[in-house]
């Protein structure tokens, strides 16, 4: 069937979209989404309808659905603002509203197992059938009934039911609860596609060929694990596997004392979800490097790989380049839009630019735009809150961070920034408690170096310089690519009288950010709270003693 609308031809047999004589590149899932909307154009389709039809009922994050809707709009010259062809009806769903004409294609051949190889190729050439039909014909002749999927989607994963080591039936409900909760929580990762728990549990208690499983479910990754109880402790073991190669990408094991089972289940799931978020991002970035024709999501993952390295200006510049390339390919990419906001925020918040206000304003504009398209995007809410926190709107910022946590309870970074906000409110003694909550959810977080630094700053603000220096050194041990961390450490060392060590810390900071000055820091106070500002005066003194350029 061919559907004609405006100057487009949408061919469901050849799975092609043409604008005039030009073939429009379109990802398989985006094609399926557009196909479903066009076929059901007489009614409003819900989010659940789309997920059931396009993703087979798998768990899909709202951000992933929005990204693909925007990609569909972009492919046919529409946008989230114009909505000339695909209209969003708030709280109801979506509808294709363009005028469509149908043109039936002539069926000229039937592919079946009785056609010889040469004849099949001739038929394929005659009718213009694509490589998928040829492959299906070959599979039928060989007796292989395993479905041949399109390339597995980005961040697609199945969480296999965790094994109950020891077999205690009374422990089964806890082990299954970990599996189910982790499946749900992983679906909150931006851009993820997670196989639903009902499908995953059909594999419970069976030996599985993971590469075959990956083909059957069309996923890139498999997570398997086990829970074992010994005395008053639980041991949790997990491993992440590349479903295409069978290679192990990551493994983790940790012990927990038996406590309230529901609280413990939540903590286990949060720890795993946060760690897996970083591991999956890294794995996708490595895949993207090997792709000869990266798409917008490939470029997004490569940008995030640089964001996750640290806050040095060099890394932020590399990240921005990838996010901008992604937006050039897909102007509706929410993830890339949020990525640019993260870069702008980092540049402004951590004093890598002289025009801090412009960087933070740019971040805020991008986040507001992203949330207008995806109001459920937890990370966008959190970063909007953090922009407010760094622009003297602290109470409003804390509220936005809490909104992000309501959408994603595993958003450990939000707890850390709320802790920093308390410092800006002149309540530095409260900061450490919030940082401990962040670490409870994500003990090995990629941003742990920042969190540790936040505690160090809070210690400096209430005069515990020795403790502050200990925390600040720990932060830099976690990631030395954090320029402001070196300058804060230098101030703390100078206030303790360790001037030579302070000057060495300044040199390390300037190697990462040669343009940092006291003036840049001084004009960028994120809060007008008098208690906070008094602490800054003491901090300026420490930086001068350490030899930070005045500017």
What's the short story on this structure?
With 551 residues, this protein is of the alpha+beta class. The chain has helices spanning 28-39, 47-55, 62-75, 117-127, 131-142, 169-186, 197-200, 210-217, 261-290, 296-307, 313-329, 334-349, 356-373, 378-389, 394-407, 412-424, 431-441, 448-461, 465-478, 483-495, 499-512, 518-522, 530-546, and strands spanning 2-5, 8-11, 16-19, 22-24, 59-60, 86-89, 93-96, 101-103, 156-159, 163-165, 193-194, 221-230, 233-242, 248-257.
Can you describe this structure?
The protein is of the alpha+beta class and 551 residues long. It has four domains: 2-103, Arc Repressor Mutant, subunit A; 111-148, no CATH class; 156-288, ABC-type transport auxiliary lipoprotein component (Rossmann fold, 3-Layer(aba) Sandwich), CATH 3.40.50.10610; 410-551, Serine Threonine Protein Phosphatase 5, Tetratricopeptide repeat (Alpha Horseshoe), CATH 1.25.40. The chain is 56% helix and 12% strand. The chain has helices spanning 28-39, 47-55, 62-75, 117-127, 131-142, 169-186, 197-200, 210-217, 261-290, 296-307, 313-329, 334-349, 356-373, 378-389, 394-407, 412-424, 431-441, 448-461, 465-478, 483-495, 499-512, 518-522, 530-546, and strands at residues 2-5, 8-11, 16-19, 22-24, 59-60, 86-89, 93-96, 101-103, 156-159, 163-165, 193-194, 221-230, 233-242, 248-257. Strands 5, 9, 10, 11, 12, 13 and 14 form a seven-stranded mixed β-sheet that branches. Helix 14 runs antiparallel to helix 15. The longest helix is centred in the middle third of the chain and has 30 residues, at 261-290. It starts with a strand and ends in a 5-residue tail after the last helix.
